[in-house]
Amino acid sequence: DADVTQTPRNRITKTGKRIMLECSQTKGHDRMYWYRQDPGLGLRLIYYSFDVKDINKGEISDGYSVSRQAQAKFSLSLESAIPNQTALYFCATSDFGSYEQYFGPGTRLTVT
Amino acid sequence: AQTVTQSQPEMSVQEAETVTLSCTYDTSENNYYLFWYKQPPSRQMILVIRQEAYKQQNATENRFSVNFQKAAKSFSLKISDSQLGDTAMYFCAFQNRDDKIIFGKGTRLHILP
Fold it and tell me: How far apart are the CA of B90 and the nearest CA of chain A, in angstroms?
């Protein structure tokens, strides 16, 4: 089984809808991250969490919110989806001091 | 603020040849990590190689090696004996003590048969 899983893997939604992307990990890592990938822009950090009670904004947090329900779960929400949020979204985890992040398989989100 | 620049949006090389992907970065920190990630068409992000800034020796992983020039803030990736399976997007990335990673915009590499 994969160490970092994301659901759904693909999603098409309409403008204005609320949508949640979920990430779960079995690596026992404290640190979790949400990234967005757009063609030609690489990956950009949306939010990150260093433990259950710690949530931090990344480079592009506007229009997004997150919830760290447990050490193993970190969800990303789009309260009112808009077309320019169409992108590939990655969850990642890391262990304190390891300086290596482990990525989930990605969720392709399309907002029409 | 740290930045990572990959100046080659796309490259193509023949199978079995050697190819070098360029990366430069900007930081005022002295201790940090540098990475190369590979993203094949499956879109999975795969760590190829990493380099600790305090280590002078260039990292090597089988056919993959880096040329780390700390003073020049340069971190290039060399792929020797390139294979068709090396076709992918390659991202250079910088990580500081805050544990946040900053990615370059990527280089799309095509290995031609």
Answer: 10
pLDDT of res. A2: 66
Which regions in chain B score pLDDT beneath 50? none
Touching check for A58 and chain B: CB below 8 Å? Answer: yes
Asked if the bond preceding A8 is cis, omega within 30° of 0, the reply is yes
Alpha carbons A37 and B21: distance in angstroms, whole number: 20
What H or E segment, with its residue span, contains residue B60?
strand B60-61
Q: What is the Cα–Cα distance from A47 to A34, expressed in whole angstroms?
A: 5
pLDDT of amino acid A1: 56
Among A98, A95, A110, which residue's Cα sits nearest to residue A33? A95
- Tokens found for residue B93: 């990335």
C-alpha–C-alpha distance, residues B68 and B64, integer Å: 13
- Mark the ranges of chain A whose per-residue pLDDT is less than 50: none
Please state, in angstroms and rounded to a whole number, the distance separating the CA atoms of residues A46 and A14: 21
- The β-bridge partners of A42 are A38
Q: Which two tokens stand for residue B46?
A: 């795969």
CB neighbours (10 Å) of residue B83? 11
State the pLDDT at residue A89.
Answer: 98
Measured in angstroms, the CA of A32 and the nearest CA of chain B are apart by 10
